[in-house]
Amino acid sequence: MLTRALQKRHEIDSFIARCEVEREVYKRVPREDHLSQDDWLLLTEIAEMLKPFYDSTMRHQSRAEQGHHGAIWEVLPNIEFILEHLEDLKIRYRDYSTTPDVTNSTPTRQHRKHTLPPTLSLPPTDLSEDCCKHFRMAINNAWQKLDNTQPRPQLAIYRTMLGNQSGMG
Q: How far apart are CA 110 and CA 30, in angstroms?
């Protein structure tokens, strides 16, 4: 729905502008519901952040190729991909005023190689510091939740799932 709203931005803005000229006050869009340039920028940033989550969900929805053995092994690489995406976001939205530390409050995974494009390493100057602070908190919470729920490589079940994946296809 967010992607569709971004695609229909001009139509939404036109609708709000048309409603402003209505004689009846109850037909007008309340001033606090108008979307400013900053609101559209914020929605665009949120859509970019959530795109890998959406793509991953759509890719695996009802597509378990080898479902008779379970499908968790098909999802594990995507969990790793999303963790990498969250780490890139942690770098992009890090607090430049307090510390040069990349992760801000949560550690990165040691075995992961970082492949952040140089354009993302710049601070997002178009967003307010409050927005960046909320993004940092949400990104760190998502990273911690996903990292805590991911099976650990030292667990036998994890090794078994990865070992069986090559024999199933």
A: 50
Which pair of tokens denotes residue 84?
């990498």
Q: Could you tell me the two tokens for 160?
A: 């078994």
This prediction has a pTM of 0.68
Question: Using H for helix, E for strand and C for coil, what is the string for 72-94?
Answer: HHHHHHHHHHHHHHHHHHHHHCC
- Rounded distance between C-alpha atoms, residue 118 and residue 107, angstroms: 21
Instruction: Report in angstroms the alpha-carbon separations of 125 from 17, 42, 90, 120, 130.
Output: 29, 12, 15, 12, 12
Per-residue pLDDT reduced to its tens digit, 116-143:
444 444 445 578 888 889 999 999 999 9
CA distances from 32 to 16, 29, 52 (A): 12, 8, 31
- The per-residue b/e assignment along 85-123, b for 16 or more CB within 10 angstroms, e otherwise, is bbbbbbbbbbeeeeeeeeebbeebeeeeeeeeeeeeeee
